[in-house]
Amino acid sequence: MARVVSVFLPTLPTDRIRRADPSLSSDTPLVVIARSGSKRWIAAADRAALKLGLRVGMPAAKAQALVQGLVMVDADTASDLAALERLTLWALSQYSPVVAMDPPDGIVMDTEGADHLQGGEDLMLSGLVNRLRGRGLAARAAIADTWGAAHAIARTTSRETVIVPGGETARAVNRLPLSSLRLPAETVASLRTLGFATVGDLAATPRAPLTLRFGPEVGRRLDQMFGRVAEPIDPIRPVDLVEVQKSFAEPIGAPETIEKYVSRLVRQLCLELEKRGLGVRRADLIVHRVDNTIQALRAGTAKPVRDIAWLTKLFRDRIERIEPGFGIEKLSLAAVIAEPLIEAQSASSLIEEQVTDVTPLIDVLCNRGGQRIFRVAPVASDVPERSVQRIAPTADEGGATWPLNWLRPPRLLGRPEPIEVIALLPDHPPVSFTWRGKRRRVKRADGPERIFGEWWKRSSEWIAVRDYFVVEDDTGERFWLFRAGDGVDAETGSHKWFMHGMFA
To answer: Rounded CA gap, 108 and 6, in Å?
Structure first.
């Protein structure tokens, strides 16, 4: 079943302007002004302007009179469209093989079979919205069985993410306003005059009178929203994309036939990449069916490759997911992400140690589980929870190392947990402590090891310290505890105790 994600960027024009001019404060109201002849009106407004009562469509003169210090910028539709295109290309490389622009303020993606690479639909949507927010862009995203439903929900909800379970499209859209049907404003106004208020009201009305009065567009939009009529997504393609295609005079559908032509496309793609000195990092197989629908498969590699046999295997392992339907009329294979690849001769000396390449195993696991494969690398930081980071399986080492002068537990809690401690201040270790409801008596202890805050990163850590102790309880278990503060000056910390790790 198709799953479609609609991303709504409600303040794209103003967000684009703020990104281009960092000197603009987020508290400064900003509006985009459109004009036609002598008329000037607000075409877009940021959150600060909306809070002050400004609205899209309001005359520019009235807005300027209402709000002092209002920043007004002329509309630039071409720049807004270019920004939307760049975001769409970014989403193509990160989330799905089938991504298209949904102008003027949205992106649409078919994520069927691709959401597992992001950890599921929930993590995919929340991660997408968070990454856009990190780029200074406000966004809302919805996923449903159809483009029409996802588009409507993303633009009518106040939540950042909405997931409509499969098969529940009708229940999710029945109460949505008529404006969510992507109909012309004149048609929506006429329908409201006739007494229609929601999508459900319109869907329950006989089709013939509506078609007679408004033409086929109302019925078509309803059918698209409820999934009765297919609405294919024409995926965007970069200008420099390396892509090969195969069209068929007669539709194909047998698995062995699909596999044969996929192998040929992989060979052609590798030859094209070789001409350009590139290797593929992410490849998309697009299946065009005769019913005007498409299906996509995505395969990624941990490093640039141009190995025909290996790339063929990555797609062959997933060919059973292809549903040919009434037949396939075209296959396309594209290297969505390609990087320079320098061929290196492998060592043939009997003396040199042979290094086992685990990249093929990483590729298989990553294509099954997406972001679950990573390596742990050290970060130059004295604060324990900041001294580790997740990196890609084949990423280069950063050069940082963990300190070796003090013992570190093999298991570090993701977040220090508060504990109750009996201890003599300022420098004595705990006599006993209670953690997760269990009281433990300390038999041996070592410390304290004092760790200072990173004042150059956070002003709140200017004089903050932690005193760490390695303790062993009466059962032989060893723990890593710390006290926030030096035990004397309250400004150095709260003097509360925390559990931070366990030793083997």
So the answer is: 5
C-alpha to C-alpha distance for 299 and 89, rounded to whole angstroms: 17
Sequential pLDDT tens for the chain (504 residues): 679 999 999 999 999 999 988 888 878 899 999 999 889 999 999 999 999 999 999 999 999 999 988 999 999 999 999 999 999 999 998 888 899 999 999 999 998 767 666 778 888 999 999 999 998 999 999 999 999 999 999 999 999 999 999 899 999 999 999 999 999 999 999 999 999 999 999 999 999 999 999 999 999 999 999 999 888 888 898 888 899 999 999 999 998 999 999 999 999 999 999 999 999 988 999 999 998 888 888 888 878 889 898 888 888 888 888 889 899 999 999 998 888 987 655 555 545 555 566 677 666 666 665 556 777 788 878 788 888 887 777 777 666 666 666 778 888 888 899 999 999 888 899 999 999 999 999 999 998 999 998 888 887 888 899 999 999 999 999 999 999 999 888 889 999 999 999 997
Sign of CA dihedral 268, 270, 271, 277: positive
Both tokens of 142, joined, read: 């919805």
CB 412 within 8 A of CB 387: no
CA nearest to 141, candidates 125, 165, 152, 156 = 125
Give the Cβ contact number of residue 146 at 10 Å. Answer: 24
Contact 224, 6 (CB under 8 A): no
DSSP SS3 for 196: coil
Q: Where do the H-state alpha helices sit in 277-404? A: 308-316, 359-369
Which residue segments constitute the domains of the chain, with CATH numbers given?
A: 1-236 (3.30.70.270), 242-340 (3.30.1490.100), 411-502 (no CATH)
For 168-194, letters b (16+ CB in 10 Å) and e give ebeebbeebebbbbbbeeebbeebeee
Assign 101 to helix, strand or coil: strand
Which pair of tokens denotes residue 106?
A: 């949205």
Task: Write b or e for each residue in 40-68: b if 16 or more Cβ atoms lie within 10 A of its Cβ, otherwise e.
Answer: bbbbbbbbbbeeeebeeebebeebeeebe
CA dihedral 256, 262, 264, 270 (to 10 degrees): -150
What single-letter DSSP state applies at residue 463?
S
Phi/psi region, residue 261 (left: phi>0; alpha: psi -120 to 50; beta: rest), is: alpha
Helix 217-226 to helix 207-214 angle, to the nearest 10 degrees? 130
